[in-house]
């Protein structure tokens, strides 16, 4: 399994410290309509660090540029771990935060978010693609698109533009994200008239990417669907580099770290996201410039989602009739349409965002926007 080493640029750390003021262990604050104590719980370390670091950098930048002192942002590290994530959620609630952004991984969020729900604190799921929000409660709101929305867009593109009629699904039964992503692929395949001819199950430490890839390619399917976490995504792209099948990845493949680890083997991969760097809206273009200057690296979708979470929260703060968590919870359902880096952002009755997915094809080591 490949391990990602994430380096946070010095300038990004300086920005985060100046914006956050305090990190884990900060004292609680009394909220008013114009001032919010907000927790950013993300995977700064661990397997999901490629997502979490970008997530928090994007959030910190948005607070610096847009909040005008109205948000006291506090950073917490969930370590990409369920136990650590629940501990950080409890600490954030104890610290008196009124809104939570995160945690990064859906399995971590599914364990930690009920703590916020019980405490009456709304949560914005910045990166939680497979989280079943309705099962947790009415205080959970998604910022990223769901895995269903992103996979559906990718599979539809593969069916209509690549004439895919059959596919093999590769997934990892022991991983919560992979399990949810696999179900999204099954639903999308059925909706688009694609037959999943077989399913190959990856077991970390038992099976290998090479063996699974060989089994997947044996029946000459039109496509290979990857419902796998980012930590193994690069290995599977390399293992299937010579396959003639169209390759479609879930959100675990939507990471620049995955592209770097797999190199030219990623070319041709279809994967959708909540955002693409070439998105044409004005907010997005300005964000790309400012994030790149602040961090010495271009933003990815997770940074954009972190930035958008603050745009959505600020819109709710303006709508809120009362201060604190209860006021924000009521206002989130009344924000209407908000112009964000992700596009025109709104919520449906299930607390799902309504903007369109960005369908991408990897070309020359970059995510090229195709739809």
UniProtKB/TrEMBL annotation:
Residues 38-365 form the Leucine-binding protein domain. Pfam families: Peripla_BP_6. Keywords: Signal. SUPFAM superfamilies: Periplasmic binding protein-like I. The keyword 4Fe-4S does not apply. This is Unannotated protein. It comes from freshwater metagenome.
């Amino acid at each position: 399994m490949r391990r990602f080493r994430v380096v946070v640029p010095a300038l990004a750390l300086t920005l985060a410290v100046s914006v956050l003021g305090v990190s884990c262990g900060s004292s609680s604050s009394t909220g008013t309509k114009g001032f919010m104590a907000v927790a950013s719980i993300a995977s700064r370390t661990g397997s999901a660090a490629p997502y979490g670091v970008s997530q928090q950098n994007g959030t910190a930048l948005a607070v610096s540029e847009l909040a005008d002192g109205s948000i006291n942002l506090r950073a917490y590290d969930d370590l990409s771990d369920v136990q650590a994530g629940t501990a950080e959620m409890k600490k954030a609630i104890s610290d008196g935060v009124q809104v939570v952004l995160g945690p990064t991984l859906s399995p971590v969020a599914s364990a930690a978010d009920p703590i916020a729900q019980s405490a009456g604190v709304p949560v914005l799921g910045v990166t939680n693609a497979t989280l079943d929000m309705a099962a947790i409660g009415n205080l959970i709101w998604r910022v990223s698109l769901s895995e269903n929305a992103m996979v559906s867009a990718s599979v539809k593109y593969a069916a209509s533009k690549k004439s895919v009629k059959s596919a093999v699904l590769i997934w990892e039964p022991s991983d919560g994200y992979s399990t949810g992503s696999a179900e999204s692929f099954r639903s999308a395949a059925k909706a688009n008239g694609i037959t999943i001819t077989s399913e190959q199950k990856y077991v970390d430490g038992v099976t290998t990417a090479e063996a699974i890839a060989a089994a997947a390619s044996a029946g000459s399917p039109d496509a290979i669907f990857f419902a796998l976490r980012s930590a193994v995504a690069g290995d599977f792209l390399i293992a299937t580099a010579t396959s003639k099948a169209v390759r479609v990845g879930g959100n675990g493949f939507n990471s620049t770290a995955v592209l770097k680890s797999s190199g030219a083997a990623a070319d041709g991969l279809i994967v959708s996201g909540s955002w693409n760097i070439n998105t044409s809206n004005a907010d997005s273009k300005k964000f790309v410039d400012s994030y790149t200057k602040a961090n010495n690296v271009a933003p990815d979708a997770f940074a954009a989602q972190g930035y958008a979470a603050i745009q959505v929260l600020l819109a709710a703060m303006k709508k809120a009739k009362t201060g604190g968590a209860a006021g924000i919870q009521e206002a989130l359902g009344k924000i209407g349409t908000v112009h964000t880096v992700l596009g025109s952002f709104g919520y449906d009755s299930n607390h799902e965002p309504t903007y369109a997915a960005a369908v991408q094809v990897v070309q020359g080591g970059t995510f090229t926007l195709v739809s």
